[in-house]
Write a structure and sequence with these properties.
Number of strands: 9
Order of helices and strands: EHEEEHEHEEEHEHH
Number of helices: 6
Structural class: alpha+beta
Helix content: 25-40%
Distance between the termini: 47 Å
Strand content: 25-35%
């Protein structure tokens, strides 16, 4: 039995470049089909599929170009796989500035870096504080939503006067209140 993770990342690097980085930086043996491994983990590096890019854009706000797949051995007594997962993820995040998300079983958010802010999910904690103390990047530990698991959409409290102005604008523009609010927030975040 294995524990599966995926680091989906937006980058100009191609899979061969990432494969070369990992094979040169870590004690990993080459395998078939762009895979690397050690006694605790198997890693695969692939271009992201267009359907997954659209799903990630809708749920996380970015289009990943690369999918780094990790399969950790469930009975890894030395936690070598879990340590390698953290080290590989952090190395790639330090070399690549694009948005990224690390998912457990393709749906549970373990960490995310959106707009340059790295956040590790507080619940459940994949790594202990002592393990995270080795991370040299600035990061936060906060609860994260997992939209691919069906977690409810985030809610934002606004003043009634702002709500009524948004409602009026939405009616005039023929949009739903949700659509207008998302459009306005995206515009202000991008500019």
């Amino acid at each position: 039995m294995s524990l599966d993770y995926e680091l989906r990342i937006e980058t100009d690097f191609n899979p061969d470049k990432i494969y070369d980085i990992l094979s040169n930086q870590f004690d990993l043996k080459p395998g078939e089909d762009q895979r690397l491994f050690n006694s605790g983990i198997i890693i695969g590096v692939y271009p992201e599929k267009p359907a997954t890019q659209e799903l990630m854009l809708e749920n996380y706000g970015f289009k990943p170009t690369i999918d780094i797949w990790f399969s950790l051995k469930h009975q890894d007594q030395e936690n070598l796989g879990k340590q390698t997962l953290l080290k590989v993820s952090i190395l790639l995040l330090s070399l690549i500035s694009g948005d990224a998300v690390l998912l457990f079983n393709s749906e549970k958010t373990v960490l995310q870096r959106i707009s340059g802010v790295l956040i590790f999910n507080q619940k459940p904690a994949t790594w202990q504080k002592s393990e995270l103390s080795q991370v040299k990047l600035n990061y936060y530990v906060k609860p994260l939503k997992s939209p691919l698991l069906g977690d409810s959409s985030p809610k934002i409290a606004i003043q009634p006067s702002v709500y009524y102005h948004l409602q009026a604008m939405a009616i005039l523009q023929g949009k739903s209140l949700k659509q207008l609010t998302n459009d306005l927030l995206k515009e202000s975040l991008i500019n």
